[in-house]
Amino acid sequence: MSQSDSGNTTSSSLKWWQLSLAGIGCTIGIGYFLGSAIGIKLTGPSFVFSFFLAAIGTYFVYNVLAKMTVEDPQEGSFCYYAYKAFGRWARFGCGWNFWFSNILIMGSQLIGLALLTQLWFPNIPLWVFSAIYAALSIVVVLLGTDGFDKVEDILAVIKTAAIFMFILIGGLVVFGVVADEPVTVNDLPLSSGELFIDGFTGFWSSLIYAFYAFSGIEVIGIMAIRLKKKEDAPKAGKIMLGLLTVIYVLSIMIAVLLVPIESFSQDESPFVTALQDYTFSIFPVLFNGAIIIAGFSTLTAALFGVTTLLVTLAKDKDAPSLFAKKLKRYKDLPIYSIALGAAGLFLSVITALLLPNKIYEYITTAAGILILYNWFFIIMSAFKILKMTMYMKVGSSVGILLILLAVSGTVMDETIRPGLYLSFLLTGVICAVTFVMNRKWKH
């Protein structure tokens, strides 16, 4: 819907619990399954604290987004609220920042999928798997909205079941029910040196990966307009974030209890690493497959999201009108928007071909930072739009502080610092184009 339209024309069909479940399904992906390995390597067992801080920051962002949705439900969601608070330049910048961040998310998911599949076929180059998954993702999106929904529902059930299976089996191993050598309380990391293996700087650097595991609340903000009762949006977010936090913290705690920190690798999920030395020889293989399914689900959802967003940008004249066109002979699909998203996917394939070693960390870091830039704008928009209580003002300020900590923490580790530079480059391009367009609009 264009910003010039009044009100909301989207049918309201969702219940709050459906939105919560959809949020969990959209959020859990490679950022959690594979990115958490990088976070553990950076800071050790204290990575669970990173998740707590990320959950708090995410909650304050979603809280104000949900309240703005309740007061003024719009299809443009956070892009519309940026427009309402600061003007067209803010909507343009937020929209394109979100588009590019999702392109990077797709690249991150794509390369993560290739890394995981390479565990089974180590002699096949990374770019080959990237190309295969990119093509499959495009096929799913070309099935249309109904086909996409059905595929995503199935994939969401599989990946959520896999997490609970790991927590159950890992918990049984920890308590010695099924393992020959159970982990005891004495093995718990109790000293600061054991908890923070690289001191405060490692913990600081790990924050970006904890936040990245919660990326997806913007999509839930967009979906909240479909709630039967818009006032249920905050409740849906609380339940979603609560369940995600419990899932993340429990699974990470079990993983770091089962194997030494040095055993984890950014090329393998920590949950596969955690159980591969125990009696469940088949489990790592099955779980690796479930993670690949989860990553493919998030990859496809991101492609679907950038396609939908580009159509909205085109309707609002913040993108060429060509991208709003839907061709009836192709099931009313926005073929040109899909084509641009697909081009972004295959750019990731080329990147994987040229820079196969550290590219996952770089792209994941950059994607996480761009998402946090938008989260920052969501809170700043809320300060101008909402009549805030003191609690909301304090909470929103805490959210901004945690976002700034997560972004600045990427400076502390040289292995992920290039991701910060990449985010600066893309943001600089978006800001430059926004500046030029803003001058054009004024005239």
From TrEMBL:
Gene3D superfamilies: Amino acid/polyamine transporter I. The keyword 4Fe-4S does not apply. The chain crosses the membrane at residues 21-40, 46-65, 98-120, 126-144, 156-179, 199-227, 239-261, 281-314, 335-356, 362-383, 390-412, 418-437. GO terms for cellular component: plasma membrane. PANTHER family: GABA PERMEASE, GAMMA-AMINOBUTYRIC ACID PERMEASE. It is found in: Cell membrane. Keywords: Amino-acid transport, Membrane, Transmembrane, Transmembrane helix, Transport. The keyword Transport applies. GO terms for biological process: amino acid transport; transmembrane transport. This is Transporter. It comes from the Bacteria. Residues 21-385 form the Amino acid permease/ SLC12A domain.
